[in-house]
Amino acid sequence: MAAQAGTGDVGSLQHETYEAIRILGRGACSTAFLCRHRQHGSLAVVKQVELEDLPPAEREKALTEVELLGMVQHPNVIRYFDHLLQPRGLYIAMEYAPGGTLDDFIAQQSKPLPEAVVVRFLAQLLLALQALHERGIVHRDCKPNNIFLDDRQQMLKLADFGISRLVPAATFKASTLGTPNYMAPELLEGRMYTQKSDVWALGCIVAEMCNRKRAFEAPNVSALTLLITSDKPVVLDKSYSAWLQGVVRACLHSQSDQRPAIAHILSQPELQNALVDVQLL
């Protein structure tokens, strides 16, 4: 896959393998393009990461994303296709999920999602996190904007491994990485990041699907930190079952060692029908 670094315009992405169609989004040091495979016409996302003036830490993040994408092959995780590293840029080709982000999907809802939909999405997120955790990976930035949907908006796919880490290197003190609204209390207090911090983020995402607003929202980081560490329970819309409320409450336990493991949640009877449905998607 040959590529030429550019300025982030559609015409600047020149591949032997992929033809750029349009820009999907821009980050601080990267641009995501929707592309078409020149030979067989399939769609893909190519993330162009400018490396020329990138600080060493940001360069490491980009290379980590490539490494981790290649390690995980799962239906609920965005698939990695290929990458090319050049002196000025890194190009990562990955699966395109045309249904938009979960963040967009939640914003489009005018009334609470049916519990069956929430539970189906919960099951898929659990399977995605299980696939990561079994390989010793923690995501570190689980949020609706990093979760994509297929064309039928029935299957979720977890993405954006830019700040993920392998567990031996991940049980470290939290830095400013991650999105504060989904960060567990231990991270905001400067304590260690573990797989249970991903479980906290999962609880935030499920609550957001149910209530159509973030579980924790405040006007500034200081107020947000106070809210998250206050141990105030998050209450779901009254249309949801006591079981689902219990799952969210358990995931959002202020003490990380009291939060359930992914495997424990997956074993609950209320999830079994959803897990069967996922296999049929």
UniProtKB/TrEMBL annotation:
Reaction catalysis annotation: L-threonyl-[protein] + ATP = O-phospho-L-threonyl-[protein] + ADP + H(+); L-seryl-[protein] + ATP = O-phospho-L-seryl-[protein] + ADP + H(+)
Any GO molecular function: protein serine/threonine kinase activity
Protein name as catalogued: non-specific serine/threonine protein kinase
Species name: Monosiga brevicollis
Keywords attached to this entry: ATP-binding, Kinase, Nucleotide-binding, Serine/threonine-protein kinase, Transferase
Any single Pfam family the record assigns to this protein: Pkinase
Top-level taxonomic group: Eukaryota
Stretches assigned to the Protein kinase domain: 18-271
GO cellular component: nucleus
E.C. number: 2.7.11.1
ATP-binding among keywords: yes
